[in-house]
Amino acid sequence: MDILGKIQLHREEERRLAWEGTFGEYLDVLRERPYVAQSAHSRVYNMIKDAGIEEVNGTKKYNFFNNQIFGLEDSIERLVEEYFHPAAKRLDVRKRILLLMGPVSGGKSTIVTMLKRGLEDYSKTEAGAVFAIKGCPMHEDPLHLIPHHLRDDFYREFGIRIEGSLSPLNTMRLEKEYGNCIEDVMVERIFFSEDKRTGIGTFSPSDPKSQDIADLTGSIDFSTIAEFGSESDPRAYRFDGELNKANRGMMEFQEMLKCDEKFLWHLLSLTQEGNFKAGRFALISADELIVAHTNESEYRSFIANKKNEALHSRIIVMGVPYNLRVSEEERIYEKMIKESDMSHVHIAPHALRVAAIFSVLTRLLDSKKQGMDLIKKMRLYDGEIVEGYNHIDLEELQKEFADEGMSGIDPRYVINRISSAIIRKDIPSINALDVLRSMKDGLDHHASITKEDKERFINFISLARKEYDEIAKKEVQKAFVYSYEESAKTLMDNYLDNVEAYCNKNKLRDPLTGEEMSPDEKLMRSIEEQIGISENAKKAFREEILIRISAYARKGKKFDYNSHERLREAIQKKLFADLKDVVKITTSSKTPDEAQLKKVNEVIARLVDEHGYNTTSANELLRYVGSLLNR
Ligand SMILES: Nc1ncnc2c1ncn2[C@@H]1O[C@H](COP(=O)(O)OP(=O)(O)OP(=O)(O)O)[C@@H](O)[C@H]1O
Ligand SMILES: [Mg+2]
Asked: Which residues form the PrkA AAA domain (predicted)?
């Protein structure tokens, strides 16, 4: 469908979802779907829950955060189960400000943005529908219209608890526009939208001297005072602060702890009593989730200040440390690159992996566990099997430090260094070494890295490089071996012919000259030695193979390369050993001969077709591995 068609469909959808009616009619809606009256916190929780929850190895995985947040399962589980879930049940935590605390660029804003965008979408669904008093700048909950003394009766009839009082503006409108007939007050379905300032708000502090509390709670509209006659007429007030606009949904409070205190005091009563003060009016009830974020040092100095005690006790702090799993870290970079303008650049296989290895190493803390080093720890964390350790060791490691993941290299730094590596190269193709080099160069300009850190980090770069060397060598050998599949067969046939002749005490016939020859002892031994068969054991081994071949023949099956596990291993190892020189010579020859050139082209074609390289990165890989093997 073309874009105009989609726009039209979107408009039709909006029309279909719209609802408007009197308060009396709204009560009918409530009778059928009481959940539409849920609180803001409950709506957030249900949004997350409705997206699906899976349990993997005892950890809950929330589909809501899939594809955007990687490696933070534990933090997300805490966030949902210790904050949103109890808050949805109207427990006390919902009266606290949620403060996400973690290192720079560790995903805090991403989590908040997901919640905001999620709520916008959720309010368009049946389950997430929200209704409000029509024409109210704060989208006030229609149930506030029910007078306090009737609320117990309402609860008995509807099973819904009402919190909060009708705002000064709607109190006046009820009187003036509706002649106090509650049932006639118009109600409409609203759809959260940050752009339209409905139910989603963001407050970010600017210069404390010039910033006005009006940004948070609205202000007098002087142009209308003449019309309404008084500053305390609610109609002369613009309820357009972020707290007003975010009512029913959520407000993100950026840099909350950098903010001037006078802004924070407003939050005190909002969170505790569910209301805040604006202008000269009675308290205004609001129902919204307030999420703030900060880093560790800012948070420490905040709690060190006695003056902040009252506020501190109204904050729930949730740690959002860095991800500590290499594979997940790779996914973070993949996502960030896809979202950036670098997506056209070829990034060679393993380039992001080595970057991830480096950053995770910088975040890990040294364990006191016997024999444990950071590389092993990194592997265990990533779910790999490390000899001598099991899942109990892993759990012990994870419990050893409470603040692991609160420092180290951040994803944004990595992405910046990748883009600077791209700029430095003429061709839009970068490899693992380019990335590591760029990461190293960048350390000089990294603002928050101490001299000791720098030394440690440079050491991690060489560790990551060593990991890469192994990966690279294997990759090239694999590419060579496959082209040698034929030779593996030839080598095996040759070996079997010789074994047969040896066991039957026959001679072999040279296929060219027809001359008789004795079995090639040297060839057979060179293969057998690969799997540790001694001179004394060779006869038994050869006979066993012959028996196996005739057993196969009796069943009409063909004995081949894969029929004998140990023999196959021997052949493979022999090929690899022979190959080592071939790879070495082929990849490092300055003036390759025709045959070498052919081989190189074959290998490159295979790396491109089957392993995700392009010709540039495949050539670079071969050259690098050549230099490694020549050391
Ligand atoms: N665990 C993670 N999963 C997915 N993406 C992540 C993760 N950590 C960081 N990112 C990515 O890193 C970038 C920076 O993250 P974000 O802005 O959310 O961090 P932040 O904690 O708000 O940082 P700051 O303290 O600098 O505001 C984003 O592109 C984000 O997608
Ligand atoms: Mg942020």
From this structure: 21-371
